[in-house]
Structures are given as structure tokens and as C-alpha cells.
Amino acid sequence: MPVREGIYGLLAEFNTPTELVKATKAAHAAGYRRMECYTPYPVEEAAEALHFHKNHVPLVCLLGGILGGTTAFLMETWISVWSYPLNIAGRPTYSWPAFIIPAYEWTILFAGLSAAFGMIALNGLPQLYHPLFNAPNFRDGATSDKFFLCLEATDPKFSVKESAALLKTFKPVSVVEVQL
């Protein structure tokens, strides 16, 4: 069944994290992959139930560190050997041991900056609007004491009637259709 225009998904509200985790595991077992849990505090079991283990920030940090170290070392080599060579007491212009400390510092700088900006970019921030803000019960309980599971309409398995029936089997407080 094709998804109706303007629907973001179905939002189920639960009172306890145990109910949320149970519903999330069942939805994943039923074949849903585009879903998200919203809780007022971290619930590790919900992340495990979503099979959310991919994290690309360490790779971005590693690539930033490699880029920083390589950039510093090549810049120092270019300056000392070709751009501005100095003959000091007959020492060679290419003295790589002197380049290690600044290259290390640039490695740390680029790794830290790439981790910070990479994390922000991979999280999709800044995001000033989200369709879940349209759900009346989400605004009141998401940050205080309620637990939410949203099955997104972009999931290939999503059907409004079938997805709502699946969510209602877990006896949530409410199941709301979220508009875009």
C-alpha cells in the first residue's frame, strides 16, 4: 500500500522503557528498519534493539589526524627544503626529526576538529524543525517521563493500518499518525 502524502510515520507512546524495548525488538523482528526511539534519558537496551551500532566518528577522527600530520610534515618539508632553505652550520636542510613535534601537534588539532565537526555533521545538526514536533503528546512527554517509538513512513514495510495494528499489540498509551 503506498504511503499517503504528508505522513512522517506512526508514533507510539509508552510509560516504561521496558515496554519500549519490547515493542522495538518486535518491530525489528517484523522487518521494520526505519524506526527511532525517543527517551528522556539514555536507554542502552533501546539502542541495541534498534541494532544501532554503526558509528563513523572514529573514522572521521582518524582521517582528520592523518590529514593533519601529513599536512604539517609536508608543509615543514616544503618550507625548509624548497621555499626558504637555511644553511646553519652546515646542517642538512631536510632534518625530519625536527618536524615530528609540530606534525604531532597538527595531528591532534586536526583529529579533534574533525571529530567535533564530523559528529555535528553526521548527527544532521543543526536541525531546527522535526516532524515529531507536530505530535501533541511528544512535546509534553519526550523530555520528562514518556518513551516513544516512531515507525517512519519511508520504511519499505510501512503501511498505516498494519503498522498501527502492530504497535497496538503492545498496549501503548497512544498511537498517533505524525504529519510532515
Would you give an account of this structure?
The protein contains six helices and four strands; from the N terminus they run βαβααααβαβ. With 180 residues, the chain is of the alpha+beta class. The chain has a domain at 57-122. The protein has a four-stranded antiparallel beta sheet with strand order 2-3-1-4. The protein is rod-shaped and about 85 Å long. It starts with 6 loop residues before the first strand and ends with a strand.
Summarize the entry for a quick read.
The protein has 6 helices and 4 strands; from the N terminus they run E-H-E-H-H-H-H-E-H-E. The chain is α+β, with helices and mostly antiparallel strands and about 180 residues long.
Blueprint of the fold:
Layout (H helix, E strand, L loop, with lengths): L6 E8 L2 H13 L5 E4 L5 H6 L7 H27 L16 H23 L13 H6 L5 E6 L7 H9 L5 E6 L1
Helix pairs in contact: 3-4
